[in-house]
Amino acid sequence: MEGMAYGAGKAGGAFDPITFVQQPNTILRIVSWLFAIVIFGSIANEGYVNRPDEVEEHCIFNRNQNACNYAVGMGTLAFLSCLAFLALDVYFPQISSVKDRKKAVLADVGVSAFWSFMWFVGFCLLANQWQVSKHEDNPLREGGDAARAAITFSFFSIFTWGGLMLMALEKLRSVSFEEEYNKLFTPQPPPPII
Question: How far apart are the C-alpha atoms of 7 and 92, rounded to whole Å?
Fold first, then answer.
């Protein structure tokens, strides 16, 4: 139990990038980051099509601009959120205050749960709008791969963010146990040598 506080070693330790990248939490966060890039990139790039007789482009998901806006907006925000929490993961061992570490872990739990839920909503919205899309709205079948990629990666994002939430909960559990242990068994100074 010595030398640990809220899932990290004592503050001020040296940063090892190889060990950092090999941690399951970091790998899952990078995968979530890549999924966010795929989602907003595919919709921003190929998610808007037009009929041959129209000039104005419409969303490939049943001509519902809200579906494309949701996918691009949530993908962009999830991308930024991943970057912010990757930075926090790098900085986390340098945080010396136990209360601040606990706040960081709680924020990770909350944000990960939020994104898991938002990607569930996004998957349901995109899959439903893709299912009811009409063939005459896209007779050349343009952008279908991008739409399917956005749906698929929004589905996978539910589980990557859920995994991040479970890892943060496990870190919080170990932190709470450690905090209680330290309260009950405070380190005693060694007896004076006579």
Answer: 9
Q: How far apart are CA 72 and CA 82, in angstroms?
A: 15
pTM of this prediction? 0.81
Exposure on the CB side of residue 128, measured as CA atoms within 13 A: 9
Other C-beta atoms lying within 10 Å of the C-beta of residue 1: 9
- Find out whether 126 and 71 touch, Cβ atoms under 8 Å: yes
Give how far Cα 150 sits from Cα of 38, 45, 108, 178, Å.
7, 11, 25, 41
Q: What's the token pair of residue 123?
A: 């998957």
Sequence-distant (≥ 6) Cβ neighbours of residue 16 within 8 angstroms: none
Q: Give just the sign of the alpha carbon dihedral 130, 136, 138, 141.
A: positive
pLDDT > 70: what percent of the chain?
Answer: 83
Q: Report the chain's mean pLDDT, rounded to a whole number.
A: 85
